[in-house]
Write a structure and sequence with these properties.
Layout: E1 2-10, H1 14-32, E2 35-40, H2 45-51, H3 57-64, E3 68-73, H4 88-98, E4 101-110, H5 122-125, E5 129-136, E6 148-152, E7 155-159, H6 166-181, E8 186-191, H7 197-210, E9 217-222, H8 223-232, E10 239-242, H9 244-258, E11 265-270, E12 275-279, H10 296-310, H11 313-328, E13 331-332, E14 342-343, H12 346-355
Parallel strand pairs: 1-2, 1-3, 3-12, 5-10, 8-9, 8-10, 13-14
Antiparallel strand pairs: 4-5, 4-11, 6-7, 11-12
The chain binds 1,4-dihydronicotinamide adenine dinucleotide and magnesium ion.
Length: about 350
């Protein structure tokens, strides 16, 4: 297979971690007989410095021409004083919109080798954690109309509106069922159907889509309970699907229980076009350019890319296995360092993973 990948290293540690992820992708491609065609595009602060715009038109065009996009991170103190609409983050929001990315896949995976960094009880996490939150990204209360303020009974009153139509629910549900089919085939739909009409429609549509996926075991859970269950016993979940508001909160909760921001990948997917693959962490300006960054979140984002953009499951698994072996052998970057382990830099960590493919 030939894969057209658009690279957007971005700012801070972005270039260092993307370089390592590319080296690993090249190794996987060579090993499994694929070819990769790379293009490069500017986003965020580096794009502002070069063009004055955090998302130049050429960047959008380069992303659209690719099969998948790999992003490092954007932002940093250098651009913090710019007005909101010209800041690096605007580039990220803009590219998500331009590519029509309506689903955010956030695996919260704790390798058992790193269980010590996790603050849940050891008996809960001794075998690691492996949950994925699928969050709807373009609807819900963040975008619903009407929004505003008005005087009601003499009091200033503000309102937002939670809205989903059946098509929006159907497409995120299908995507989540598809993701569950690539994992343990268990899907938990999280809502607040005891209170919210939006959630009652959500549940009906998810039930209807479930008929297309007889192999997947579907359950429903109220969001308040889901927030508790995630810390009580995260491994009861395989894939969680939920709306934008609940997903915002639950995906961060699921990530933080793993205890290692430098380890977590993500994918944002749309309808048909290229998806965006990126680590969940930011540009880490405090360690940028020092060969200290952990490249594993970006390397694991490449594994997600192989799985979700190209259905190359063996190739994705080869990367995940290589990462696990490196951890088993005791190599650690600074952010996941423990006593008795071997401290390595960003380059070495990337090389170690590539060598084990
Ligand atoms: P951050 O995720 O960049 O850093 C938080 C802490 O985690 C820092 O101490 C950093 O050194 C460490 N860290 C993060 N990634 C690491 C890695 N791969 N290896 C080792 N250590 C790592 O978040 P922060 O400091 O809030 O934001 C810094 C900049 O990044 C800001 O300009 C922010 O706007 C931007 N940002 C960009 C995101 C993106 O591009 N998706 C997401 C979050 C923040
Ligand atoms: Mg959040």
């Amino acid at each position: 297979m030939n894969m057209k990948i658009c690279l957007m290293p971005g700012d801070g540690i972005g270039p260092e971690i993307v370089e390592q992820a590319v080296a690993v992708l090249d190794k996987v491609a060579a090993k499994f007989g694929h070819t990769v065609e790379y293009s490069n595009a500017l986003i965020g602060g580096v794009a502002i410095d070069a063009t004055g715009n955090p998302l130049p038109d050429e960047t959008v065009a380069a992303c659209k021409a690719a099969d998948a996009v790999l992003l490092g991170a954007v932002g940093g103190p250098k651009w913090d004083t710019l007005p909101g609409d010209r800041r690096p983050e605007k580039g990220l929001l803009g590219i998500r919109k331009a590519l029509g990315l309506f689903a955010n896949l956030r695996p919260a995976k704790l390798f058992p080798e790193l269980a010590q960094a996790c603050f849940l009880r050891p008996d809960i996490v001794k075998d690691g954690i492996d949950v994925m939150v699928v969050r709807e990204l373009t609807g819900c209360i963040y975008f619903g109309q009407p929004v505003g303020r008005e005087m009601r009974d003499g009091k200033m009153t503000a309102f937002n509106t939670m809205v989903y139509d059946e098509e929006e629910v159907r497409r995120i549900a299908r995507l989540a069922f598809d993701a569950a089919m690539k994992r343990e085939k268990r899907l938990c739909s999280v809502d607040k159907a005891n209170v919210l009409e939006v959630s009652r429609l959500w549940r009906e549509v998810v039930e209807e889509v479930a008929k297309e996926y007889p192999e997947v075991e579907l359950t429903h859970m109220y969001v308040d309970n889901a927030a508790m269950q995630l810390v009580r016993n995260p491994n009861q979940f395989d894939v969680i699907v939920t709306g934008n508001l609940f997903g915002d909160i639950l995906s961060d909760e699921a990530a933080v229980i793993t205890g290692s921001i430098g380890m977590l990948p993500s994918a944002s997917l749309g309808a048909g076009g290229p998806g965006l693959y990126e680590p969940i962490h930011g540009s880490a300006p405090d360690i940028a350019g020092q060969n200290k960054a952990n490249p594993l979140a970006t390397i694991l984002s490449v594994a997600m890319m192989l799985r979700y953009a190209f259905s190359l499951n063996d190739e994705a698994q080869a990367i995940e296995n290589a990462v696990q072996r490196v951890l088993q052998e005791g190599y650690r970057t600074g952010d996941i360092m423990e006593e008795g382990k071997s401290l390595v830099g960003c380059n070495t960590m990337g090389n170690l993973v590539a060598e084990r493919i």
